[in-house]
Each structure stands twice: as C-alpha cells, then as structure tokens.
Amino acid sequence: MTKRLTQLGFFLALALILAYVESLIPFSFGIPGIRLGLPNLAVILLLYGSRGGTQGGGGSAARGPGIGGARDAFLINILRIVISGFLFSNLYTILYALAGAVLSFAAMLAGRRLRCFSVVGVSVLGGVSHNIGQLVMAMLVTRTVYVGYYAPYLIAAGTVTGAVLGLGAVELMPYLWRIKDRS
After folding, report:
1. DSSP state letters, 96-116
2. What is the biggest distance separating any 2 CA atoms in the chain, rounded to whole angstroms?
3. Nearest alpha-carbon partner for 100 in 53, 148, 40, 163
4. Could you tell me which residues are beta bridge partners of residue 61?
5. Cα 10 from chain centre
6. Is 172 helix (H, G, I), strand (E, B) or coil?
7. Theoretical Cys-Cys bridge with 39: which of 19, 46, 122, 159, CB 3.0 to 4.6 Å?
8. d(Cα 172, Cα 118) in Å, to the nearest integer?
9. Backbone angles phi and psi of 54, in degrees to 5
10. Cα(25)–Cα(28) distance, rounded to whole angstroms?
11. Domain boundaries, the chain
12. Mean pLDDT of successive 10-residue segments in the chain (183 residues)?
C-alpha cells in the first residue's frame, strides 16, 4: 500500500509541476481557454498504466508502471485540478477545468476501452473534449451561445496539443515500465 501511495504521489507531483511550468509559459493566441495541457501527460500515463492499455492501437497488451488504470488516472486528474487551481489561479479556473476534465476523461476512457484509438488518438480525444467541456461551461456561466464561435479554434488547438502530449506519453511509457521492472 505504501508503494502504491508513493507512486500515486509521484504522478500527482508530476502533474502539479507540469501545471506550474504551463502557468509560466506565455502561450496565447488571443483566444481564451487555449492551453498546452501539460498536466494531462500524467493522466494519460496513468490511464495506460498497468491494467492492460495498448500502445499504438494494435491491440497488444502493454505492461504498465505498477499502478494506473481509470480510477488512478481520474483521482490524480481531479486532485491536480483542485490543488493547482488553488496554487496558480482561482475558483473560476477550477470550475472550468473540472468541466473540461470530466468530459475529457470520459472521452479518453471510452476511446481507450474501444481499442480503436492509439495512445495519441486517445490523447487527441481528451484535448478536444476538454476544450468542448470548458466551452459548454462558458456558455452556462455567460448565458450566451455566442461563446460557441470559439469552437473551431479550440477544437484545432485541442487536436494539436493532444497529439503532442500523446506522442510524449508514447515516448515516456517504456521508461516508466523499465523503472517498474527494476523495483
């Protein structure tokens, strides 16, 4: 149990560090809501952890870092949003991030379970659906559908950033598994 908590703590720390790094990067195209999504790297790594994810969509079972799966990924995702929200932003940011995270996680989990998407494809699903979730929340908060005009830009941004994070996850997975094999 102690080892598992330590590993989950590592992933939470990784997500929080990536959230901090992301907060330092001046990344803006004049459209609210476009972010790199760096903390989602930890979520993707956990989602494809030890409970039989696939690497590249080919259907072959993969060995994970000893923890992982939907429950761990969801837990770390929610904890990092709440903690990083209080550390680096405000309550409204937490609200928007939670709306995006819940929709994003549901889409990534469905994509992973369908086994017709690669890790990169699942990450793209997550990036796009995260932006859509935030857009829906913005429509509810502002009580106007005109915010929806941002949708094409947010979908494009979610596709690009999701693909980059997915490629990063594919590159990191073998190293995490190698660490697990040594312990």
Report:
1. HHHHHHHHHHHHHHHHHHHT-
2. 54
3. 40
4. 54
5. 16
6. helix
7. 19
8. 15
9. -115, 150
10. 9
11. 2-182
12. 86 94 80 84 88 41 61 94 90 92 96 94 96 94 92 94 96 79 59
Alpha carbon distance 31, 153 (integer Å): 8
Residue 76 and residue 153: Cα distance in Å, rounded?
Answer: 28
User: Could you give the 3-state DSSP secondary structure of residue 131?
Assistant: helix
Q: How far apart are the first and last CA of the chain?
A: 15
Tokens of 92: 């409204």
Identity of residue 64: G
Contact assessment for residue 44 and residue 74, using Cβ atoms and an 8 Å cutoff = no
Q: For residue 10, which amino acid is it? A: F
Q: Coil, strand, or helix at residue 68?
A: coil
**What is the dotted CATH code of the domain comprising 2-182?**
1.10.1760.20
pLDDT at 56: 42
What's the token pair of residue 4?
Answer: 């598992």
CB atoms within 10 A of CB 119: 27
In this structure, the number of other CB atoms found within 10 A of the CB of residue 156 comes to 15
Cβ count within 10 A of residue 87: 11
